[in-house]
Amino acid sequence: MSGGADPDSGPPGGPGQDSGPPGGPGQDSGPPGGARRDAGPVSRTFGLDADAARAVLDGLAIVRGEVLAVRHDPRAGTLTVEAPDAAAAERVAGLVAGLRRTHRLIGRKVLRRHEAARRLDGPIDAALAASPDVQVLGEGLTGLSGRLLALFRFFERRFRELAAAFEAEDQHYPVMVPSALLAETGYLGHFPQHVTFCCHLPDSLPVLEAVAAEAAAGVPDVAGRLAAPGHVLTPGVCLPCYGRQRDLVLAPGTVRTLTMQNHVFRYEAGRFRPLARAWDFSVRDIVFFGPGPELVRRRAAVMERAFALARELDLDASLELANDPFFLDANRDKAVYQRMGAVKVELLLGLPGRDAPLAVSSFNLHREFYTGLYNTRLAEGGLAESACMGFGLERWLYGFLCQKGLDPAGWPAPAREG
C-alpha cells in the first residue's frame, strides 16, 4: 500500500517525465504577492476538486509541524491551511502546488467495477468501536477476537489459498529488518515518513540503573539515552525477498513465485483509524520473478481472482490504475511514471458514508527495479523482472464490515460459514 494508501507499496519506479506547469501556490489571506510578513499564523486558500483535495490532505498529514489547522469546503471546492508563520506557509504552498500539478497529470482511471446488490447506507465506525471483538490498544494498534477474528481468519485463508494456486513457495521473515535494507532498496529515500525505527538502551550499567530507578515512578524518560537505531520495523512484507535472489539465474521458461505474510508497520501521522489505517497491520504478498510479459499475464490472473472474491462476497469494488503517494519533491514525478506505465493497480472497496474508497489490494509490476539491484537474471540473457501482489487483511475485513455490517446474519454465505 501505500507508501501509505495501499497494502503493499511497490518500488519507487522510474523517473517519468513531467510536462505539466508548476501551478500556482494558491491564494494568500495576507497582502498580494506572497504570505503575510508579520509574525503570527498565516492562512492560505487553494482551489481543489474533491480528488485533488484528498491527495493534498494526505500530503499535509505528514507535515503536521507546518500546519495549525486545515479547513476543507467541498461545496466551494476550497482548502484553507493555517500555518504558524510566513515561512511555513510558503513551504505548505509549495507542497500543495506540487501535489496539485501531479494530480492533474494522473487523473483517476477505473478499469473494472462491481456494484453490490446489498450494502449498508452509512459509516460503521461507531458500532465497530463499541464491539467487544475490537480492542484498540493504542494509536494505530487494534486487536481482534470473537467473530471478527474468525472473519479475519477467513480472509487470511482465502489469500493463502490464492497464493497456493500459483504454487508459491512459502517464506517467513522477522518483523524487524536492518535499516540498510531500506536504504538499499530506496524505501528510506521515498517514504521516510512511514518508517518506524527500532532502538534500545546502550550497554551501560549507569544508564540501565538510572532507567530502572525512574521506572518505579512511571515510564522513564529515555530521550537522549537510546543507542543509534540500526533496524526498523518492516514497512513492506516483501522487502527481504529481493536480496535473496542476488545473482540468481532463472532457467528458461521459469517463474519463481514466493509468498509471505507478516505484520507491516507504517507511521501515518495521526491519520489512524481502527482496521482501515493502522500503524501495525497484516499483509499477504505474492512475488513473481521472471520474464516481463509472463509477469504481466500472472498479475492479470491474480487480479481476476481477487476481483472474483469481491464479487463472491457481493462487495462494491473497483480495479483502478494507481500510484504510490510520493509527497517529496525529488520523488513526485515517479507517481506520473507509475500511472502512465500502468505498473500499479489497486482493488478498492467502497465505504458507505465516506467520499473515498479504501485500497485493500495492490498489484505492482516492478520491472527491473529490484532485479537490477540484485542481478537477478534470465538464462536466455538479460535481467529478470519482478512483481508483487499485496492483500491487506485488516483492510479487507474493514471494507467488508463497512458494506455488510457486524451481524453475521447479513453476511454472504462464504463469509458466514467461514
Describe the structure.
It is built from 13 helices and 19 strands. With 418 residues, the protein is of the alpha+beta class. The chain has two domains: 79 residues, Gyrase A, domain 2; 301 residues, BirA Bifunctional Protein, domain 2 (2-Layer Sandwich). Strands 5-15-16-17-19-14-13-8 form an eight-stranded mixed β-sheet. A four-stranded antiparallel β-sheet has the order 1-2-4-3. A three-stranded antiparallel β-sheet has the order 9-11-10. Helix 1 crosses helix 2 and helix 4 packs across helix 12. The radius of gyration is 23 Å and the shape is globular. The protein starts with 26 loop residues before the first strand and ends with a helix. The relative contact order is 0.19. The N terminus is likely disordered. This is Aminoacyl-transfer RNA synthetases class-II family profile domain-containing protein.
Specify the CATH architecture of the largest domain.
2-Layer Sandwich
Measured distance between first and last alpha carbons? 26 Å
Tally of individual domains: 2
Number of E strands: 19
Radius of gyration, in Å, reads 23 Å
Q: What is the beta-strand fraction?
A: 15-25%
> Would you state the CATH class of the largest domain?
Alpha Beta
Q: Write out the CATH superfamily name of the largest domain.
A: Bira Bifunctional Protein, Domain 2
Question: Which residues form runs of ≥5 with pLDDT under 50?
Answer: 1-5, 9-38, 325-341
Largest sheet: 8 strands, mixed
Biggest sheet, strands in spatial order?
5-15-16-17-19-14-13-8
CATH domain fold name of the largest domain = BirA Bifunctional Protein, domain 2
Kindly report the average pLDDT value. Answer: 84
Number of helices: 13
Portion of residues within helices:
25-40%
- Alpha-beta classification: alpha+beta
Inertia-based shape = globular
InterPro entries: aa-tRNA-synth_II/BPL/LPL
Region (Disordered): 1-43
Organism: Methylobacterium crusticola
Protein name: Aminoacyl-transfer RNA synthetases class-II family profile domain-containing protein
